[in-house]
Design goal:
By secondary structure, this protein is an alpha/beta fold. Helices cover about 40% and strands about 15% of the residues. It folds into two domains: about 140 residues, Rossmann fold (3-Layer(aba) Sandwich), CATH 3.40.50; about 280 residues, no CATH class. A hairpin with a 4-residue loop joins strand 13 and strand 14.
Length: about 425
């Protein structure tokens, strides 16, 4: 067990290179992500390679010192990098960092971590724009747990259409039970070594701690007692379009205030948003966003999808929705280190032709992805992507149906089916 724990602690994070690069040319590097995703461990790994002093504001003495004299606190290590963990606990430090950097813009002065989006933390009125770069850290990706730096979108572009099938055929073969086990586990470092029962206990305590404690520290919203209800509702509808009136009715949160509560969950890195693609191209495109949970293990826990009941899980409709959110989250993770700049969207028109994921590249070209829990693929699974191809025209590169079967197959010149494992193993 001790050896295994050590192995988990030393899993290399794929964004480590991005952090090092930022410290080389930018005064402030900010690592943001949910609690318990491994920010402190990542800082320790980075600190081994640079001249760095580490401080955590979870230490009450340190926090009190920071609040007493923020400017003196941030200037205490002028010769190297000052790493401050959980900086959102003392928003006053952001103003002090700004003032200090304006006096001395040497690269690599500060390495900050936060369990919330610092742009929306109550009291954090000072922007670090132009002085800082933010790197998002999520739970372990599938590639990180296998010791590889996966980059699905770049692999698609490198292959071009002519070689894409060969690339997709390199994906590892997994069974539906394998996928269900990965989805149920999720990627939080603390749960990787736990059995299903212990994971459920960890998830319960984690959700309670973040929603009851962190949310109250970060926000003055008046219905925080209903935040847990909202989180559960979103979990039950993960990867579905977010209909404000319906959600307001289920949660008791006023519709006019609902966006603030969703924003808080997003600031805590508990949920991910997918905006609708193509709103300016056609009035027939539906503009509602989708919201899914950041971690499939949390989503599985809240939906009662236990790894010990895989047969029931695989038969249930909920598995398909959580599997889709699992793939969405994997691509959000890869955004942080991909060689390609891309943005994630979803697509649906008024004829209900849908595409689960639209990957838009920096130059405007798109890749369409559909996620299926089935072991087989049919021509009808490509209907939404064919409609999108007509709408996008020359911007459309290819469409791929990701499914739980084992084979990568062509379905036309620019349409393919591939195992879901291609997302991290192609």
């Amino acid at each position: 067990m001790d050896i295994a724990v050590q192995e988990i602690k030393t899993i290399r994070r794929n964004i480590e290179e991005a952090v090092m690069t930022t410290l080389f040319d930018t005064p402030v590097a900010v690592i943001q992500g949910a609690r318990q995703v491994g920010k402190s461990t990542l800082v320790s790994l980075v600190a081994e390679k640079i001249n760095c002093m580490k401080i955590t504001l979870d230490d009450t003495t340190m926090l009190n010192a920071a609040k007493t004299d923020p400017l003196a606190f941030v200037n205490q290590y002028p010769g190297g990098t000052l790493a401050i963990d959980e900086v959102q606990l003392c928003p006053e430090l952001l103003r002090a960092v700004k003032l200090s950097v304006d006096e001395n813009r040497r690269p690599g002065r500060f390495l900050l971590t936060g369990s919330a989006d610092l742009l929306h933390v109550a009291g954090a009125n000072e922007s670090l724009a132009g002085r800082a770069e933010t790197i998002k850290l999520y739970p372990f990706s599938q590639g990180e747990m296998e010791g590889r730096k996966e980059d699905f979108i770049s692999s698609i572009l490198r292959a071009n259409l002519a070689g894409l099938l060969d690339t997709l055929q390199g994906a590892p073969a997994l069974t539906r039970e394998d996928y269900a086990a990965r989805v149920a586990m999720g990627g939080y470092p603390d749960i990787v070594l736990k059995d299903s029962k212990r994971r459920n206990a960890w998830f319960r305590n984690y959700i309670m701690s973040v929603l009851d404690h962190d949310a109250a520290d970060l926000s003055g919203l008046s219905h925080l007692d209903k935040l847990g209800v909202l989180f559960s509702v979103i979990s039950g509808q993960t990867s579905s379009e977010f209909v404000q009136r319906s959600v307001a009715g289920m949660t008791g949160i006023p519709e006019s205030s609902l966006s603030g509560y969703v924003r808080l969950l997003k600031d805590l890195y508990l949920v991910l948003e997918l905006s609708a693609w193509g709103r300016n191209l056609s009035r027939r495109v539906v503009s509602k966003k989708k919201i899914s949970l950041t971690d499939s293990g949390v989503a599985s826990h809240l939906n009662g999808l236990s790894e010990t009941a895989l047969a029931d899980v695989l038969r249930g409709e909920a598995f398909g929705a959580v599997l889709e959110s699992f793939v969405v989250a994997e691509l959000f993770k890869q955004q942080s280190w991909s060689a390609e700049d891309f943005t994630l969207y979803h697509y649906r028109d008024r004829d209900r032709k849908e595409v689960d994921l639209v990957v838009e590249l920096f130059d405007g070209r798109i890749v369409a992805l559909e996620v299926k829990a089935a072991r087989t693929v049919s021509r009808s699974d490509f209907a939404g992507m064919k409609t999108l191809r007509e709408t996008a025209g020359d911007r459309f590169l290819c469409g791929i149906v990701l499914y739980t079967g084992a084979n990568a197959l062509p379905y036309g010149n620019d349409m393919f089916a591939a195992p879901i494992s291609a997302v991290w193993g192609s």
